[in-house]
Design goal:
It is built from 6 helices and 13 strands. The protein is α/β, with parallel strands linked by helices and about 250 residues long. Strands 4-5-6-7-9-8 form a 6-stranded mixed sheet, covered by helices on one side. A 5-stranded mixed sheet has the order 3-2-1-12-13, with no helix packed on it. It has a two-stranded antiparallel ribbon with strand order 10-11.
């Protein structure tokens, strides 16, 4: 068996938040302590949005101070709490100012493709024709590379009514399914935003919404309001070994 390749996915750090008096920085530090105990050490880290609560420069600086000591390549994408231009000021993100954050990266045995699902000023997400066209072309450029597609809003139905209202609309999920249906090298779709671990599928491909490193949302399919739960925070670890991709959800004490 070949040595496994590990990509860690952190999500929804919300540095700068003060929900229920919980400290998001302490939560990130606990998650990173857990990451450092992984064997082998991950080859890269993906942060799938909502790095900060208020998109303030000081918050992004704090996030970078927390993550840089890992000493591995860092890939970020915006969530609904982020600002694209601010994200670009503090991280090595392709593109200009406030344009959508779409890019790809060769991680060695795995290709990472990032597509921006955010709508500035709104909690819900979108994949318009322009972004889907970019994605179609980008996937077509490397048809044989095992690919993980990353975004903030996961293309899935949760059954939790208030999460449905701030998710990716059904029409956009169907349009995305049409795109990935043309690209069998897409092995996993990874996202965040839901503040709980949720698994689903899109066009036969596995979809994983990673939990937040901060606070989690209660599973309640009858409530009209989001409710926090004391469930532990966590993160995802995508492991590629001998051509097979497994995604683990690791809880953090």
């Amino acid at each position: 068996m070949a040595d496994p390749f590990l990509l860690v996915q952190l999500s929804d750090l919300h540095v700068g938040a003060n929900w229920a008096e919980h400290d998001p920085v302490a939560a990130v530090e606990a998650a990173l302590a857990s990451v450092r105990r992984l064997e082998p050490m991950p080859s890269a880290v993906l942060v799938s949005g909502d790095l900060t609560e208020n998109a303030a420069d000081g918050e992004y600086e704090r996030v970078r101070e927390l993550l840089e000591p890992l000493g591995v390549p860092l890939y970020v994408l915006p969530g609904n709490h982020d600002d694209r231009a601010a994200l670009r000021r503090h991280f090595d993100v392709p593109g200009v100012d406030g344009e959508p954050v779409n890019y790809s990266a060769d991680l060695g045995p795995l290709r990472l493709v990032v597509v921006d699902t955010t709508l500035p000023g709104e909690d819900g997400g979108s994949l318009d024709a322009e972004r889907l066209s970019w994605l179609d072309r980008e996937l077509a450029s490397e048809p044989k590379a095992a690919t993980l597609l990353a975004m903030h809003h996961p293309p899935l139905a949760t059954g939790i009514k208030p999460l449905e209202r701030i998710g990716l609309p059904p029409a956009d999920r169907r349009a995305l399914a049409e795109v990935i249906g043309r690209h069998p090298q897409v092995r996993r779709l990874a996202a965040g935003h839901m503040h709980r671990a949720i698994a689903s599928e899109l066009d036969g491909r596995a979809v994983l919404a990673a939990p937040s490193t901060y606070l989690q949302i209660r599973l309640d399919c009858g409530s009209e309001e989001l409710q926090l739960t004391p469930d532990p925070p966590g993160y995802a670890v995508h492991v590629l070994v001998d051509g097979e991709l497994a995604s683990h959800v690791q809880t953090v004490r």
